[in-house]
Amino acid sequence: MTPKNSIFIATSIDGYIADKNGGIEWLHSIENPDNDDLGYVEFTGRIDALVMGRVTFESVMGFDIPWPYDKPVYVLSRTMSAIPSTHQDHATLVNGSLSKVLSQIHANGHHRLYIDGGATIRSFLKEDLIDEMIVSTIPILLGGGAPLFSELPRALQFDLVSTKTYVNQLPQNHYERRR
Fold first, then answer.
1. Residue-range definition of the domain harbouring residue 73
2. What pTM was estimated for this model as a whole?
3. Does residue 12 fall inside a structural domain?
4. CATH assignment of the domain containing 95
């Protein structure tokens, strides 16, 4: 199977994925009376596993909900020594170069990966390891915070595959890496 690394994320109009305080409450600033999943269920049906950074993992652990993932989760961290005992059945710690991490994950039979978390996404982009991006835009200007994108060693060309609008407010663009 050909490996594929994908992101599915929302940003503010000005390109932030968290506000100046690291908050994400603004993601719910648009009414969604029918609880439309914005394509998330379809997207996760196409992946084998998730790769997320430590900060994202710790944020998810702090949500007052049951563990939200039914696929294997790999936590990419240089500072964690182990997954907390409360979540050892939910996640696996990985570290090292991205090529080493991907080799380890692929050896476990996981080839279609959902890459999540700002720093993790930026690291994958810097090494040109993102094949697909699905980016929704929340119509809000945050004026600062955690950016989705950062400086890259070179330009990366993507093709627009589709654009959908959800709840009459949220444009979602689907891009694939031009190789």
1. 4-24+46-161
2. 0.94
3. yes
4. 3.40.430.10
Q: Does the residue 18 lie in any domain?
A: yes
Report if residue 94 sits inside a domain: yes
In this structure, which amino acid lies at residue 4? K
Secondary structure of the chain in the HEC alphabet?
A: CCCEEEEEEEEECCCEEECCCCCCHHHHCCCCCCCCCCCHHHHHCCCCEEEEEHHHHHHHHHCCCCCCCCCCEEEECCCCCCCCHHHCCCEEEECCCHHHHHHHHHHCCCCEEEEECHHHHHHHHHCCCCCEEEEEEECCCCCCCEECCCCCCCCCCEEEEEEEEECCCEEEEEEEECC
pLDDT tens digit sequence for 89-103: 999 999 999 999 999
What is the per-residue pLDDT across 103-162, written as a single tens digit (0 to 9) for each? 999 999 999 999 999 999 999 999 999 999 999 999 999 999 999 999 999 999 999 999
Q: What torsion, rounded to 10 degrees, do the Cα atoms 58, 37, 10, 114 define?
A: 60
**Count of domains forming the chain:** 1
Q: Supply the angle between the helices 54-62 and 118-126 in degrees, to the nearest 10.
A: 160
Is 40 a member of any domain?
A: no
